[in-house]
Amino acid sequence: MAPSSQSFQLPDILGVINSIELRTNGHCRYATEASEKWLTETGILSVDELSYIHPTKIGLLSALCFPKCDFPQLRVLTDFCMLFFYSGLRENAEGETFRLWDVDHSQLSAQIAAGSVGEMDYKSGLDLLKGHVLLRQLHQRLVNLASAASETWNARFKKSVLDYQAAQEVRRMNRSRNDVPSLEEYTATAREMHGNSVLLDLAELLEVFEFPDLRGTEAEKIIHMKHAALDVIAWSLDVVSYQLQQYRGSTYNLVAVLMHHNSLSVQGAMNQCGNMIKQAFSSFCSTERAILDSIDSSKSSILSWMWTAKEISADTEAISEKIKRYIRALKDCISAVIHWAYETELFFGKKGSEIRTFGWVFVDHIPVITE
């Protein structure tokens, strides 16, 4: 599909999240080189697919998302980021979806329509990943870790994999019918479409951080923060990928959804996306403040139900550190994706630096991958 002749200016999403410090992992180069070598040797990618490794800079993305982990952890996470990228690349290729997951698509579609995805599936999260032609490559590396993980983690990981699978299926169904989803349907799907929940669960399995095991309203706040972070990431990717999606002829993008339902121009939809991203990030930050204020309170609802007064001091510090580390991980992922978007050649070719500065996207800003 030919791109629109209309140029547009991106919302200042870097300005929205400029309160987050950008950090990177010192093992970036070595993890990237090792991952690229491994991917090349597996033989699972075509020559054309392998040509995208360097310009897309997926290794940099992984290093920005997980700046403090050790080399072995970063290596596994980089491998997964690479595989998620190529999975997305194939998902966007017409007809490829049916060959990525070893599932009955008609049955999965029916489960999605009935709201019962995974209810009768007794497989573990890793077993589900074995049904994916690319992601199964890392099953053996993780199976022992997963078997030793808690039931809570395994249940959360399984849900993340099922949500990722369902999001891909919803996108496939909409594309096959040439449907534009409602805004509510799209935002719920987009949150899981890139596999970010799966990646966060894997980082926890590798002990990069630990998901805070809270109760009541505090648990709800943590989930709200995670959803807000995933929304900021997904919607920001929609903004920067709009030009690429137009080359592919795809309308499964927040900008296109807003244009369709709200009768907006490209620029009008871009501006509304910017407002949505700003609101989601503001919600993330306000919830963070509420959680940290609760921790600092001597009558914290996190602790009052669980420990005696003499135990609170030490345990408060431990759970406080766990929560702060998790929040820091979410912030790293937000900052990583948005900064990486201007470094990779995936969205703007070699003009990412120029677009970072001025925000304008013109028709000659051809992405590195147009098919």
From TrEMBL:
- Note the Pfam families from the entry: Terpene_syn_C_2
Which cofactors go with this protein?
Answer: Mg(2+)
Enzymatic class? lyase
The UniProt keywords, alphabetically, are: Lyase, Magnesium, Metal-binding
Give the enzyme's EC designation: 4.2.3.-
- Which GO-annotated molecular functions does the record name? metal ion binding; terpene synthase activity
Q: Which GO terms describe its biological process?
A: isoprenoid biosynthetic process
SUPFAM superfamilies with a match to the protein in the record: Terpenoid synthases
Q: Is Lyase a UniProt keyword of this protein?
A: yes
The entry sums up its family as follows: Belongs to the terpene synthase family.
Protein's name according to its UniProt entry? Terpene synthase
- Species this protein is from: Psilocybe cubensis (Psychedelic mushroom)
